[in-house]
Write a structure and sequence with these properties.
Bound molecules: flavin mononucleotide
Number of helices: 16
Structural class: alpha/beta
Order of helices and strands: HEEEHEHEEEHEHHHEHEHEHHEHHHHHEE
Oligomer: single chain
CATH class of the largest domain: Alpha Beta
Strand content: 5-15%
CATH superfamily of the largest domain: Aldolase class I
Number of domains: 2
Shape: globular
Length: 432
């Protein structure tokens, strides 16, 4: 590969006054390693290590805002209150390594326990504190079903304020911007998506009205932070409850959803796709990030199986993914289709030739290895073996003991390993 191509990935990028050292983003990845919502020193080391390995921008795992029902697991970190001193340490450590960092602000809304990820403990029953735009929980590939009460005007105002409060805390702690989790069928997306938002008031109806909740959050964040504080909005077509779902069937429909967000102050879109090379709409090769940029004029970031030929969900279900190189990504970056690329290196690291291996050899960047993914994979493998008594002490010697115990418990209880959103179905290893 020509080094000039690699250079394009390593060029700096400016988002408002934020200078990113390259175009590589570590996308948000839920971890659930912050007991009572407070990041530990391990979390500080986790992010600092990824920064040290050359990534330009880190988007943190989804974090809790100060409003009820926003997360499913108490070990998801908070972005308010007692968690902030630890986040300040994370920010300082990441900055010391030359990377930028933004938290992903998250409210899950009426999303029940996602079956696929094995993300959350407990059963799939709605908790009393869960909220959604219309009291509708999306069903896997089925029409949404009624659950709970629609959010009141007061709920909406309070949630908007909670997002703004969290953003303010992040701003004060020195984060370089915030990302709003408007994707995958969580609360903000439940407002955007017509089938879970059937409200008759100003927050429901046409696309502009369905965007109003998100736009109001963006405006509130802008008011509480600063005119040049970057606000990134993550959106997707697919939902955890329905991978074939469509937020917008045409470019015009997408524009109707995204334009009000830009008017409200969004600085960049992060278009969450499972396979970044797939065209978003018929008749053009542009992917979702490409369309977001073309339709709104603001920069965009892509993600989804970069350097691999199969997506995260399918590999979680046991299919394999082979390396493909990054030529296609580079071409599209060079053409200006999108500006940044998210890359979850743990997946590709399990393959021989990866984006970062390619970059590392040509640029001196160290490989951005997500040891978290690998530890989990290994633990899942060994736990499956342990349960079927095929394991020896020596084959366990390089496995994190705590992780292994966790994996064994999960497999025994649920038939799969789950931790954060990463999980290893035991069937993939012929286990329990
Ligand atoms: C373990 C794990 C946790 C994730 N957590 C989040 C999250 O908190 N917020 C989010 O928007 N996306 C989350 N994602 C999706 C990723 O950010 C990314 O979009 C997806 O994995 C596709 O990229 P990939 O093909 O490089 O893995 C998660 C994915 C994984 C595998």
């Amino acid at each position: 590969m020509a080094s000039q191509n690699i250079d394009c990935l390593l060029e700096p990028f400016k988002l408002r006054n934020l200078e990113l050292r390259n175009r590589i983003v570590m996308p948000p990845m839920t971890r659930c390693f912050s007991p009572q919502g407070i990041p530990t020193q391990d979390v500080v080391r986790y992010y600092a290590k990824r920064a040290a390995h050359g990534v330009g921008l880190i988007v943190t795992e989804g974090v809790a805002i100060p409003f009820r029902g926003c997360i499913h697991d108490e070990a998801v970190p908070s972005m308010f209150g007692a968690a902030m001193p630890a986040w300040k340490q994370v920010v300082d450590a990441v900055h010391a390594e030359g990377a930028a960092i933004m938290p992903q602000l998250w409210h899950v809304g009426l999303n029940l326990k996602p079956e696929l990820e094995g993300l959350f403990d407990g059963n799939s029953q709605l908790r009393a504190d869960q909220i959604g735009p219309s009291g509708l929980a999306d069903g896997i590939g089925n029409p949404p079903r009624p659950l709970g009460q629609p959010m009141t005007d007061r709920d909406i105002a309070q949630v908007i304020e909670a997002f703004a409060e969290s953003a303010f805390c992040a701003y004060e702690a020195g984060f370089d911007g915030v990302q709003l989790h408007g994707a995958h069928g969580y609360l903000i997306d439940q407002f955007l998506w017509a089938s879970t938002n059937v409200r008759k008031d100003q927050y429901g109806g046409d696309a502009a009205n369905r965007s109003r909740f998100a736009s109001d959050i963006v405006r509130a964040i802008r008011r509480r932070t600063a005119p040049d504080f970057p606000i990134v909005f993550r959106f997707s077509q697919w939902k955890l409850s329905d991978y074939e779902a469509e937020l917008a069937a045409t470019p015009a429909q997408l524009e109707a959803v995204l334009s009000p967000l830009v008017d409200a102050g969004v600085d960049m879109f992060d278009a969450s796709q499972r396979r970044y090379w797939e065209p978003a709409f018929e008749g053009s090769h542009l992917n979702l990030a490409g369309w977001a940029k073309k339709l709104t004029g603001v920069p965009s970031s892509t993600v989804g199986s970069v350097s691999l030929d199969n997506d995260a969900i399918r590999t979680l279900l046991g299919e394999s993914a082979q390396s493909t190189g990054i030529e296609r990504l580079i071409e599209r970056l060079q053409s200006g289709e999108f500006d940044l690329a998210g890359y979850r290196a743990g997946r590709a690291h399990r393959n021989a030739q990866t984006l970062f291996a390619a970059v590392a050899t040509q640029s001196g960047l160290a490989c951005l290895c997500s040891e978290y993914d690998q530890r989990l994979l290994l633990a899942g493998h060994c736990a499956s073996q342990a349960l079927s008594s095929h394991v020896t002490a020596s084959s366990l010697s390089n496995i994190d003991a705590v992780m292994l115990e966790f994996a064994v418990q999960r497999i025994a209880a649920h038939g799969q390993v789950g931790c954060g959103m990463a999980h290893v179905p035991s069937v993939a290893f012929g286990g329990a």
